[in-house]
Design a protein that fits this description.
single chain, 19% strand, binds heme C, Cytochrome Bc1 Complex, Chain D, domain 2, alpha+beta, binds copper (II) ion, 5-stranded mixed β-sheet
């Protein structure tokens, strides 16, 4: 269904109507005061126009009542905008539970995406309707920006760090995906689509792509070939370096005092720039892997470390079909309202 106002893009995510409501409120307030002020202005110009060349107007005396009214009313209106805007903002930026995770790498001039089950896509993102989808994004070159107007959400994709965003599509269909940050000559061609499918169709689509390795499995191989195992143990149990099993999402105590949450960004930094945040109790012996691994590979290593949950689950599923059942490809395995995806 096209939206009832022709200039507004289609609305197809769980929070798009909230963004629209806020937007209409802001437009309404703006329109109201524009009309009020310009109307009053025109009225006064006519009503108090100079009638004789020698006329001297009566001086205006202050009015505390008037001052108070036109201070308090705008203040209250501004606060409604602030509180409402903040609540919509927090809604969008609070990371969701049980989301499907998709890794996104932007580069001049395309989007490369990979699902936790291993499926790769370019300039297309297939997602099921009614499920929360979380994107973990970075760039290989310059700043890009992942923008899906129909979902009313966008986020910068920045080289050297991860940004995340999430959405829940509410209607099957194909929606525009734009790069919303000028990124060079073919920026305008950096477009794609988000394809929202019924859960059953999405399931079929996922299983139709056998043979691709999950990011966690690819990360496990990198972990071995890059020699991470020599310090962190063959399956992350620890040694000269800290254990990586069960690390993800926990609070890490740092040698410098203080703690940090082990999110994707922290894991990435620990590999690229190990000395930036030393884990308490360990020396600065880990070499940097800057320049040795691509952003794709970094995401795979991060996916592998995330998949290490402790006893019994340290080996990622080798095939995508296995990964679709409960497995370290946790995003897909998570319990969710759409039963056919479990
Ligand atoms: C020479 C030994 C050594 C090698 C090789 C090594 N590490 Fe480390 N790693 C360490 C030590 C020691 C620490 C703790 C000190 C620090 O934070 O740098 C650490 C910390 C980490 C952390 C942060 C862990 C936490 O609990 O906060 C991660 C993640 C990590 N390493 C991943 C890797 C990966 C992935 C590789 C392979 C690409 C690797 N390491 C290779 C020694 C090593
Ligand atoms: Cu771009």
């Amino acid at each position: 269904m096209q939206s009832w106002i022709p200039i507004v893009p289609e609305s197809a995510s769980s929070f798009s109507w909230k963004v629209d409501a806020l937007y209409f409120y802001l437009s309404g307030v703006t329109l109201f005061f524009t009309l009020l002020i310009s109307g009053t202005l025109i009225f006064f110009v006519i009503r108090y126009r100079r009638r004789t060349p020698y006329e001297i107007p009566r001086p205006v005396a202050g009015s505390h009542k008037l001052e108070t009214v036109w201070t308090v009313i705008p203040f209250v209106i501004a606060m409604t905008m602030f509180v409402w805007g903040a609540s919509v903002f927090f809604d969008q930026y609070k990371p969701p539970q049980n989301a499907i995770e998709v890794y996104v790498v932007g580069k001049q001039w395309m989007w490369k995406l990979q699902h936790a089950t291993g499926q790769r896509e370019i300039n297309e993102l297939h997602v099921p309707v009614g499920r929360k989808v979380r994107l973990i994004m970075t760039s290989e070159d310059v700043i890009h920006d992942f923008f899906v107007p129909a979902f009313r959400t966008k986020a910068d994709v920045v080289p050297g760090r991860y940004t995340t965003m999430w959405f829940e599509a509410t209607k099957p269909g194909t929606y525009h995906l734009f790069c919303a940050e000028y990124c060079g000559m073919n920026h305008s061609g950096m477009i794609g689509s988000v394809i929202v499918m019924e859960p059953r169709d999405f399931d079929n689509w996922l299983s139709g792509n056998v043979g691709s390795m999950t990011p966690a499995t690819a990360g496990q191989q990198l972990y071995q070939t890059l020699g991470c195992a020599s310090c962190h143990g063959g399956s992350g149990e620890g040694g000269r370096g800290p254990a990586l099993t069960g690390t993800f999402g926990t609070q890490i105590s740092l040698a410098s005092g203080g703690t940090v949450t082990a999110d994707e960004g922290y894991l990435r930094e620990s590999i690229i720039n190990p000395q930036a945040k030393l884990v308490a109790g360990f020396g600065p012996i880990m070499p940097t892997f800057q320049g040795q691994v691509s952003e794709d590979q970094l995401m795979q290593l991060v996916a592998y470390i995330k998949s290490l949950h402790g006893a019994g689950t340290t080996t990622p599923a080798p095939t995508p079909s296995a990964a679709a059942s409960p497995s370290p490809a946790r995003a897909v395995a998570s319990p969710a309202p759409a039963p056919s995806i479990r």
